Amino acid sequence: MGSFLQQLLNGIVLGSMYALIALGYTMVYGVLRLINFAHGDVYMFGAFMGYYLSRYIRGSGEGSYLYALFIMFGSMVLSAALGIFIERYAYRPGRSGAKLALAFWLGILGAVLGRFVSASMISILVGTLIGGLVGYFLEKYFIRTIPRASRLALLILAIGVSMFLENGGQLVFGADPKFFPQIVSAKQLNIGGLSLNNQQITVFVMAVILMILLNAIVNYTKTGKAMRAAAFNLDAAKLMGINTDRIIAATFALGSALAAAAGILVSLNYPKIDPLMGIMPGLKAFVAAVLGGIGNIPGAMLGGFIIGIAEVMVVGYLESTYRDAIAFSILILILLLKPAGIMGKGLVEKV
Amino acid sequence: MKTRFMLCLLIIFCVLISISCKKQESEIVIGEYGSLTGTTATFGISTRNGVDLAIDEVNQSGGLLGKKVRVIVEDDQGKPEEAQTVVTKLINKDRVVAVLGEVASSRSLAAAPVCQSNRIPMITPSSTNPKVTQIGDFIFRVCFIDPFQGFVMAKFASQTLKMKNVAILRDIKNDYSVGLADVFVENFKKMGGNIVTDQSYSEGDTDFSAQLTSIQSANPEAIFVPGYYTEAGLIARQARKLGFTIPLMGGDGWDSPKLWEIGGEALNDCYYSNHYSVDDPSPAIQKFVADYKKRYNQVPDALAALGYDAARILFHALRTAGTTEATKVRDVIAQTKGFAGVTGSITIDSNRNAVKPAVVLRVKNGKLEYVETVKP
Questions:
Q1: How far apart are CA A24 and CA B125, in angstroms?
Q2: Most exposed residue of A134, A138, B225, B318, measured as fewest CB within 10 angstroms of its CB?
């Protein structure tokens, strides 16, 4: 019995991580109706920013909460800037129906960067050529046939941005895993035979605090009101004098800052960071957001905890190889049984 | 637009062809593949450093067969499928006379069939899974094999540490880890021990809390984690977070300059089996350690030493054969007897494996302490 409770606790700690990432997914979707596939990679970016910030400030040594907060805040600001940048130079031209050849340029860039990792001039040339060709045909026969600025086109763009960040990360940060410094020194706690540690509590508490903050911003501030209006109907909001471009940028900034916070907090507990670390957690957090009801903030939290607990239970009592399968099985189930998610409202999609 | 595009294509192809047609007559080219990036990056880097050291030595003493030796190193990023690709490239495009690599058995198993079917000798410095050399008569190794390593750790746990109950935590997708775990279980049971639980993870995982909790409730005296250093370090760290005080044990996959950085104090009083100890007073080892330190500013791990030995055995074979003809070189490697390597005396047996002793090391405050040597 003791071990079951301990497993539940492990699941909640893992779930906090998914919940944190899922918050950003859900928020951007709520406003834009866009699954921001690059979100997991922004989370990676945030973790790396935290890593470099902490190295820059103190090298190595004992951490403290104040110091950790400072690092987290710094990383959140930098990642928010990245979010605004992505929105401004990729999604916005995409939204306004600017020629989606941009996706094709990203494809080329991605190919170049990807080949850089095992660098030789020839492979870069060949990679660029192939990437360019693929991008060219995609654009000509596929993207161009989609109505401009449609959601599908944006989704393809998001995947392009995600690949750009992953390969760019490998180029800039290096493909090797790095190990996150202990910015909060670990203290072991024993509560009635259960092992806990202050880092795990920190992650959980911060997840809840961020959720409450986010809820407050969306529901009780002017910007939040504008966000909800934009989510309800973008064109109508524009007509009412809301600067929708700015609101969407703000949404991205907020979502990316949340992803960065997740990156820092998760790295406290699981200290290995690498440029591809965002892929799996990103996907699972997306499942968590869908499970809770996409666009619904408390739902994202709930979904995250369910996925985390399910994963730990499967590994603890069945097979460790089912670890990734369980999240996606849950996704299939929820789509079959209640596509709107647990807390989602059955929205009628306006076509 | 179209014609210009075609022109570009044409130019690129011409460049490609001209590069691949250049044949080097003035030097002996050997190939090496390893994980220079990824979760086992230090494996590839250490091995490469060891090989480079051996090449510099041989070139400074006038080269081989009147030619200079050059090595072409390819990064397989720690992926078996990539290993197969780069070795194919080394053999078909670079025309290497022999191939050195890999550290990880799963990668060696992927690339060895390519060497075998092209009839190019391959010497793996440190793949310990028995299946590697069974691929064919062109595949050799200069390290001991897992049945021996598993026996060493089982014997150490049961006779030196006097343990009765041990838990296993294996990397289920890794040939090396599974092989080592199986042999350990078999031998430990033979010696009257008891395996309380056998859990698994996959390389790349970061969360091990579920497995560790299951292990905790089984109450073992130690955990045997035959995996690679990245996960071993993370597992140790998480085990301490869950309140474990028992030692962890592992195999030579733990051996990395990064192990301590990842696991830190969580690794204190953990044990692993290895190919050699840096503290060994023998002059050959001390000379190698000093040379390596001077050049790379780092203490050589066992993988560097094995890379060095693998390269030297190959040079010895080339020199003895007096030719770079693959079949003749292969025959000479197969007859290696009592070669004085840094990692001990190397004799290649009829299964193309090296028969050698192993050492057990204890991790202590970032240093490795020598505990004991076990002979085959």
A1: 47
A2: A134
Q: Are B252 and B275 in contact (CB under 8 A)?
A: yes
| Longest Cα–Cα distance in chain A | 64
Q: Note whether A128 contacts B: Cβ–Cβ < 8 A.
A: no
How far is the C-alpha of B9 from the C-alpha of A197, rounded, in Å? 60
- Of A286, A314, A327, nearest to A10 by C-alpha is A314
Distance separating alpha carbons of residues B112 and B325, to the nearest angstrom? 19
Q: Does A238 touch chain B (CB under 8 A)?
A: no
A328: its two tokens: 């996606």
Contact B153, B254 (CB under 8 A): no
Tell me the residue type at B356: K
Please judge whether A316 and B210 are an interchain contact, meaning their C-beta atoms are less than 8 angstroms apart. Answer: yes
Q: What is the 3-state secondary structure (H, E, C) of B325-368?
A: CHHHHHHHHHCCCCEEECCEEECECCCCCECCCEEEEEEECCEE
> Dihedral of the CA atoms A88, A89, A95, A96 (nearest 10)?
90
Q: Do B207 and A270 touch (CB under 8 A)?
A: yes
Cβ–Cβ gap A188/B241 under 8 Å: yes
Render each residue's pLDDT in chain A as its tens digit; 351 residues.
567 888 888 888 888 888 888 888 888 887 777 788 888 888 999 889 888 888 777 655 556 777 778 888 888 888 888 888 877 777 776 666 555 555 556 566 666 665 555 555 565 566 666 666 666 666 666 555 555 556 777 777 778 778 878 877 877 787 778 888 777 777 777 777 777 777 788 888 888 888 888 888 888 888 888 888 887 777 888 888 888 788 888 888 888 888 888 888 888 888 888 888 888 888 888 889 888 888 788 888 889 999 999 988 888 888 777 888 888 888 888 888 887 777 766 554 544
d(CA B294, CA B253): 25
pTM more than 0.85 = no
Residues from chain A contacting residue B205 (CB–CB below 8 Å) = 320, 323
Kindly report, residue by residue over B167-198, the tens digit of the pLDDT: 999 888 888 888 889 999 988 888 888 888 88
Which letter does DSSP use for residue A120 in this model? Answer: -
Instruction: Give CA A65 to chain center in angstroms.
Output: 24
Residues from chain B contacting residue A281 (CB–CB below 8 Å): none
Task: Please state, in angstroms and rounded to a whole number, the distance separating the CA atoms of residues A280 and A277.
Answer: 7
Nearest alpha-carbon partner for A106 in A117, A122, A91? A91
Task: Give first-to-last CA distance, chain B, whole Å.
Answer: 70
Nearest to B199 among A125, A195, A320 (CB): A320
Q: Find the CB nearest B201 among A6, A122, A320.
A: A320
Which residue do the tokens 């210009």 mark?
B4
The phi, psi pair for A183, rounded to 5°, reads -75, -20
C-alpha count within 13 angstroms, C-beta hemisphere, residue B16: 12
Contact B302, B272 (CB under 8 A): no
